[in-house]
Amino acid sequence: MNNLPEPEVLVKHYELTAEAWQKAIGAMLGSHTVYAPVKRWGSMDYEPITVEKIRSIVYNEPKPVSPLKLFLLPVKENVVLEPDIVRPLVVIGTPACDLWALDLLDKFYLNSDLIDPYYKLRREKLILIGTDCHSSLEHCHCTSYGINPVPEKNQDILISVIDGKVLLEVHTEKGERLLESIKGVAEFQAAGNSLPETLLQKRREVKSAIDKANKQLPNYQETTSAVKNAGEEIWEKYAKTCVSCGACATICPTCTCFLLIDRPGFEKVKQMDACQYPGFQRVAGGEDPHRQHHIRFSNRYFCKYVFRPEKFDALACTGCGRCIEACIGRINKNELFIEITR
C-alpha cells in the first residue's frame, strides 16, 4: 500500500518527556544559537529561541515559511570581511524537503574546485534537528519526486513528538556531541530500535494524503521530459501573470544564483539573485538572451528539471510548494506540469 521505508537501524534512539526536552533546549542556549519554528499571526517560521520561547516551539508541522538555505546563504553579505560566526547554530524542525535541498547546495558551494568559504563555515557550524511532518499543506508534493515526508538524509538528529513523548534519533557524531553536552540537565532514556506504531501509522497517513492530493502530478522524470518538449505557447500562457518579482526563486530551498557587486571602499557584496528578474542574463553591449518575458519564465523550469539535475545529479525541486504560495501572480507550476503532460 505504501513504500515508506521504516528505519530498521537507528544510530541511537532516545526518549524523554516534553519537560525534559525543554530543559535540554534551555541548556543548549548557553553555548549554541538556536532557531526553531514558532507560529505568529497565522503562519509558522523560524525564530531565534530564548528561554521564554521554548514552550512556543512547534513540532512536526509543515513547513516554516523560510527555507533552510537562508541560514547558509544570507540575502546580502560583504564577502571581503571575515564572517561573524562564532557560536554553533542549532536549527530545530527542518522538514525533509529542505534537508534534501542540501544535496544540491552542498554540491554547488562545496565543489572542490571552488569552495565558498562562507557557506563552508556556516555548514560546519550548523546542527540540524530534522522533523517528520504529521500533516501536509495544500501545495506539499514532496512524494511526487520520491521524497518521503520523513527526514532520511542530512539531519544530525530527527525529532518526533508523539503520544506526549519526545523521540530523538541521533544520526551523526555532530548530533551525538550536542546531546552529550546537555545530557546532564535532562534525563535522556535510551530506547530500542522499534518506533511506536502510532508514529509509523502517522507517517503512512501523511504520505498517503500527499500522494492522493497530487495523483495527477507527473513525477520528476516525466516533468523533465515534458519541459524539454513543451512549446512556447505554454510558457507564454503562464508568463502572462508573472511580474518578475523573483519570489519563486528567493523562497526556493535549492536556488543558488547570486551577484557579486563591487562597491566603494573595496567592498564586495554577494547578493541573492533570481532568474526571473529582468536583466538577469544581460551582458556587455546590452545583449540579453532572456529579454523576452516567456523565455525568461521558462528558464526557471528548465533550470529546475533539466539543467541542474544533469549537472549536479541532485533534485533541484524538492516539492515544498513554497514557490506556488509566494507567487503574487497566482502561478501554480503544478497546474502547468499537469497541462503539459496530458
Outline the fold blueprint.
Layout: E1 12-17, H1 18-28, E2 33-40, E3 43-48, E4 76-78, E5 89-94, H2 96-109, H3 117-125, E6 126-131, E7 157-162, E8 165-170, H4 173-182, E9 189-190, H5 197-213, H6 220-229, H7 232-239, H8 247-250, E10 258-263, E11 267-272, H9 293-312, H10 322-326, H11 333-340
Parallel strand pairs: 2-5, 5-6, 6-7
Antiparallel strand pairs: 1-8, 1-9, 2-3, 4-11, 7-8, 10-11
Helix pairs in contact: 1-4, 6-9, 7-9
Describe the protein's architecture and organization.
Helix 6 packs across helix 9 (293-312). The protein is built from eleven helices and eleven strands. It has 342 residues and is an alpha/beta fold. A hairpin with a 2-residue loop joins strand 2 and strand 3 (43-48). Helices cover 34% and strands 18% of the residues. Residues 1-9 have low confidence and may be disordered.
Terminal CA distance reads: 26 Å
User: How many DSSP H or I helices?
Assistant: 11
Query: Which structural category do the helix and sheet elements fall into?
Result: alpha/beta
If you average the pLDDT, what whole number results?
93
Order of helices and strands: EHEEEEHHEEEHEHHHHEEHHH
Number of strands: 11
Q: Which stretches are poorly predicted, pLDDT < 50 over at least 5 residues?
A: 1-9
Measured on Cα atoms, how large is the radius of gyration? Answer: 21 Å
Give the amount of beta strand, in percent. 15-25%
Biggest sheet overview:
8 strands, mixed
- How are the strands of the largest sheet arranged? 3-2-5-6-7-8-1-9
Which range best describes the helical content: under 10%, 10-25%, 25-40%, 40-55%, 55-70% or over 70%? 25-40%
Shape label: globular
